[in-house]
Structure formats: structure tokens, C-alpha cells
Amino acid sequence: MKQLFISLICLLLMCISCTERVVFTHEKVTPEYAEIVSKDDVRGFADTLITPYIYTKVISLRMLPVKEKKQKFVEMLLPSVLLAQHNLNQKIKRVEHIETWLTQHPNYIESDSIFLFQLFEQYKCSEISELKNRLKPHPASIVLGQAALESGWGSSRFFQEGNNVFGIWSYNKGENRIKALVGRDSTHIYVRKYSSIEESVNDYYQTIARVRAYKEFRLERSNTDDPCKLVPLLHRYSEIGEAYTKKLNSLITNNKLTQYDNYTIDDKYLQKETIELAQLNKFPLNNLY
């Protein structure tokens, strides 16, 4: 009996000594929240390092001189674009961590499983490779260009009243939305209303990631970040098709929006955060029997 007791104690100690702590480290952004009551509330850029301002209330830029209107619009929007890109890249990093884990272990960690399958549901896919493809963000120049076209450089009613930068429609009666002044045939048109510019940008990226019409765009995006190659594949974003992409390409080029593809969030607002995923026991439990 004494020998059996000692053996069990030894096995328990072996189990404890072989416990593996599994963690994941990512970079969390601490944003600044602000409202825009006048044009002077829009924070400008000193260099390519951007303070991650999230604007929860905006104003119409319609009455500003064209040059100033465009500048203020970019300053209002770019922080949210960079924040969305950062968060998507952090999700990809976590997915790749899971992918690496599965090449070395037969089973998911529970927290990883929950994280992954929530993304599968959100992005309407079931394979890790496809999920990474859908999560990949495209350059800020394209986002800024489409936002400028859809909101008239921040002049639209939807932009001012609902933070809706991309003119994304609403088909759900239960969500916050704004009725368009003009419908189509006898049908009313609604657009989504967002709590902030950041929420509008996030929804835009998710729309591009989920909708079948942008499948070719996503495939090309996995191979290149060149706006000249990507923009033509957004022809289904508008009813005018190729004319829309030509207009978008000209807007990006004429306003030199590609310069913003090299802007990043200031490191001062990034903080490393470690998530403990599991405490795993390496010792094979069948040795206890």
C-alpha cells in the first residue's frame, strides 16, 4: 500500500512539473475618443505616425474650400482606417497561432476553438486559409478613395447624421438606420447608422470580406497591395460598374492617396497584452492506469 501511495505521488509530481502554459501575445490599441463640433476639432497629422482618434460625432464638410475639405476628411477618417487594419492583422496573427498549434497537436485549445469558430460564423467561411484571406485588410488609399466617393468628401447627410462613410444600405428594420430622401421605384431605401466612424469602417471591411461579389477582389488582395491592380475588381461596388472603378482610380491618383498607405498608428498607443489560452498537461494520462 505504501509503495502504491508513493507511486501515485510521484506520478502527480511528474504531471505538475510537465504542465505547459500556453499563451498568445498581441498588440492592443488604446484609442482617443473625440467629437467634432467645428473643423478645428479635427486633429491633424504631424508625420506618418498617427494618433488613433475615434470620432463619435462629425460635421458636414460641405461648406469648406475644396482643398481644406479634402484634408479634413482624410484627417477624420484615416485613424479609424489604420485602427481597423491593425485589429484585422491582430486577428490574422491569432489565427496563424492556432494554425501552428494544430500542426503540432491533435486538438484545439477550447478558447482558440471559440475564437476561431466565431470568426468562421462572422466571415461566412469554414477554412482557416479562406478566413485569413477574408481578414486581410487592403490599403488605406482604396478605403479613403471609396469613402470620398460615397460621402462626397464628407458632405453627405448620411455621413453627418449617421457616421455612414460608405453609403452602406440597411435591410434590417431592427438596426439603427436612416431613411433616404429618394427611394427606388416605390421602395424606400435606408442606410445604416453607426456610433462612430470606426464602426462604419469596420462594417465596410466586413462587407468586402463577406459578400460574394468581391471574391475576385479578395483573391487578388491576397497576392498584392497595389491599388492599380485591386481597384478594377471593385466594379460590383456600384451599379455603374467599370465607370465607378475608373472614377475611383482617378480620385486616388489625383489626390495622391497612396501616400497614406505608409502611415501607421503611433507606437505610444500600442500595448502588448498576453492572453493565457490554457494550462496543458503534457503527461499522458493513460500512464496512470
Sequence-ordered SSE layout with sheet pairings:
Blueprint: H1 2-17, E1 19-29, E2 32-35, E3 49-50, E4 53-57, H2 66-104, H3 110-123, H4 128-135, H5 140-151, H6 157-162, E5 177-179, E6 190-192, H7 197-210, H8 215-221, H9 227-230, H10 242-254, E7 264-265, E8 270-281
Parallel strand pairs: 2-4, 3-7
Antiparallel strand pairs: 1-8, 5-6
Helix pairs in contact: 2-4, 2-5, 2-7, 3-4, 5-10
Structure description:
It is built from 10 helices and 8 strands. It has one domain (2-288): Lysozyme (Orthogonal Bundle). It has helices spanning 2-17, 66-104, 110-123, 128-135, 140-151, 157-162, 197-210, 215-221, 227-230, 242-254; strands spanning 19-29, 32-35, 49-50, 53-57, 177-179, 190-192, 264-265, 270-281. Residues 4-18 and 282-289 have low confidence and may be disordered.
